[in-house]
Amino acid sequence: MSQISVNGKTMQTLHQALPALLDELGLNKGRYAVEVDGELIPKSQLDNVTLQDGMVIEVVQAVGGG
Question: What is the structure's pLDDT at 66?
Fold first, then answer.
């Protein structure tokens, strides 16, 4: 089990893959960007990110409007 931070909230997860965590938290809907430990991760590389203890993840979702 890893203890991580997602959007400023500390949590524990059994997931090892970042996409599985994003799916469980509903953070992969629409347009979004993911930053891990201060580094922007291209969507094409998300499957390559393995969750590790202490990881800091920020997910920003684009919101349309005008």
Answer: 62
How far apart are the C-alpha atoms of 66 and 62, rounded to whole Å? 13
Helix, strand, or coil here: 23?
A: helix
CB 21 within 8 A of CB 15: yes
Is residue 12 within 8 A of residue 3, CB to CB? The reply is yes
Q: Over the stretch 7-55, which tens digit does the pLDDT of each residue have?
A: 999 999 999 999 999 999 999 888 999 999 999 999 999 999 999 999 9
Domain boundaries, the chain: 2-61
Q: Which of 64, 56, 65, 60 is nearest to 43 (CA)?
A: 60
We find that the CATH architecture of domain 2-61 is: Roll (3.10)
20, 48 contact by CB (below 8 A):
no
